[in-house]
Every structure is written in C-alpha cells, then in structure tokens.
Amino acid sequence: MMLPVSHSSSNATLRGYVVGVPSPSFAERRSRHRHVTVKAGAMSRFEEEEENRRSGEERRRRPRFLCLHGFRTSGDIMRQQVMRKWPAEVTARLDLVFADAPYPAEGKSDVEGMFPPPYYEWFQFDKKFVEYRNFGECLAYIEGLMIKDGPFDGLMGFSQGGILSAALPGLQARVGQYRYPGLALTRVPKVKYLVIMGAIKFQSPEVAEKAYGTKIECPALHFIGEADWLKSYSEALLESFADPFVIRHSKGHTVPRLGEFAVNYQKNLEVMLKFLQKIEDDISLDAAILDVKEKEVCLI
After folding, report:
1. Which of the four pLDDT bands, split at 50, 70 and 90, describes residue 262?
2. E strands of 160-255, at which residues?
3. Rounded to an integer, what distance in angstroms lies between the CA atom of residue 97 and that of residue 91?
4. Sign (positive/negative) of CA torsion 14, 18, 22, 23?
5. Least-confidence region, from 93-97, 178-182, 228-232, 278-282
6. What architecture (CATH level 2) is domain 16-299?
7. Cα 153 from Cα 281, distance rounded (Å)
8. What is the per-residue pLDDT across 9-35, written as a single tens digit (0 to 9) for each?
9. Which H or E element spans position 124?
10. φ, ψ for residue 180 (rounded to 5)?
11. Which of 36, 65, 211, 219 has CA atoms 20 to 30 A from the CA of 240?
12. What digits encode the pLDDT tens for the residues 75-121?
C-alpha cells in the first residue's frame, strides 16, 4: 500500500452499488411518524394496524453501512469480495452501499489480473504515511456520499477504506469545552458502528491526535489477519477502541472469509452474529423510544 505519490488529481461523480432493498430514507421514516402524529387522535382500526406494522418494520430494519473499499480497487470489487466470502446469514442482515473513491488510481493496482478496472483511491500519501494529498477533499466526498445515500448507521472499510472508517468517528466528534463541531462529517448523523478490516492508524501526529486522542466509544468489529503484513499496526489501532469486537483470521491483507471452510469458522461467525445482534437491538430500542415520544406528542 505504501506506493510513491504522483502529482495529478481528478474529480469523480458519486458512484454506489446497493446490495438488497435499500432501507427507507431518514426523511421517509420521519414523514411516516409525522403522518401518524397528525392522525393519532382519530385512528381507525386499519390505521392503528398500519402504524403498528410500520413501527415493527422500523424496529426490524437492516443496519445500513457505507462501505469504503481498499486502495486502488473499487466499490464493485469490494462488493464481490464481501458477497462471495461472507455467508448469507450475515449479508442478509445488512444493508450495504458500496461506493467508489473519488480519484482514479494513480499507479498499479494489487488486484490487477484478479479483478478488472477501473480502480480508485481515496487520497494519496507518502511512503511513511505521514503526508496526505486530497485528504480534505476525500472527507468532503464521503460526507457527500452520506448525504446523498444515507442516513447510515455505520461505516465498513477495508485497507485504505478501513483506515478512513476507523478515524472518522474521532474526526466527527465535537471538541472542546464548548462542544465545537468536529473536523469531518459535520452535516450528517453520528457514525454509530464500524466494521474495520486490515486497517492501521494515520501516522501523521496531527491527524492521529484528532482521530484517536480519546478512546473511540462506538461499537466496532475489527478483522485482523495473522499473515497480514500490517498486523502489528492493526493491533495498535485496536487499542484506540474502548470495547471492540475482534475476529482473527489466518489470511493476509484481504477481505477475510466467514464461510464454513475458513479457519475458526464457528468462533468467528459467533463474534460477527453477536455484533449484528448488538446493532439490531440498538435499532429496535431507538425505534421504540421514538414511537413513545411521538405518541406522547399526540396526547399534548
């Protein structure tokens, strides 16, 4: 991943690949609740049943993740990797949106010969990974994706996409005594969950202090490969999280298998399902609280 940096750049439009039926947008969900609130005083039996059905759907909705691919690959490549390597009992419980990075690859891709082009990169960096080019533009681009295709419950990232995913909650967090807005994703809801594969910390002291200065509290699932050349760096990243879920696999720097032929299949699958259950329980609780608040408004 540590490749020389060239000095050309280009812009790209937003691109995404959606797996499964997208969850209702935030505006749609809110409009449903507003509709119910207005009519709650004189509901027919049918309307009450419809309200209960919609509330149940909200509580059972699949968590929605924006997926950030690895360096010089693409959203479609990551989609193929995840859908081929993870069992349906996992992917069926997730609403995944795979997006392309904003910049065409400025050099050779490690997946040439395995996956066809085009290939993209999120930003450019030096060999020591301490200086970055187009980093601010990259953060703005991701925020644009989240506005366009969100809301999202969390981020899923591999390699360069995982580095970004792990750093964004800290960069998004409000700072200082007066809770000033964070440095990234200030126009979108808080990132609540993370899935991180083959990632490391930003090595720039300035970025690292802002991203990892305090323990990252949001639930996060980390994949660490025993044969990954970045393993020691991934272990260091893990220490920045308050209470992470961890899946260790025998492979290298890759999106790992969760299927029955993988090493420690059952143990790792149990960790994944426990993580998903945590998210689903949170979503159900949030929906129940929102229902109660909406109904309380109707009684005022």
Report:
1. confident
2. 193-197, 220-225, 245-249
3. 12
4. negative
5. 178-182
6. 3-Layer(aba) Sandwich (3.40)
7. 13
8. 333 333 454 444 344 443 443 333 333
9. strand 124-125
10. -65, 150
11. 65
12. 999 999 999 999 999 999 999 999 999 999 999 999 999 999 999 99
Angle between helices 26-39 and 265-299 (to 10 degrees): 40
How do residues 125-175 score in pLDDT, each as one tens digit?
Answer: 999 999 999 999 999 999 999 999 999 999 999 999 999 999 999 999 987
What's the predicted TM-score (pTM) here? 0.80
Mean pLDDT of the chain: 83
DSSP 183: S
193 forms beta bridges with 154
Phi, psi of 62 (to 5 degrees): -80, 140
Q: What is the dihedral of CA 249, 273, 101, 159, to 10 degrees?
A: -20
CB of 160 closer than 8 Å to CB of 1: yes
Question: How far apart are alpha carbons 53 and 287 in whole angstroms?
Answer: 13
Q: In b/e form, how buried is each residue of 166-185, taking b as 16+ CB within 10 angstroms?
A: bbbbbbbbeeeeeeeebbbb
Q: Which residues pair with 225 in a beta bridge?
A: 249
Q: Bridge-partner residues for 125, per DSSP?
A: 132
Domain ranges of the chain: 16-299
192 close to 283: Cβ distance less than 8 angstroms: no
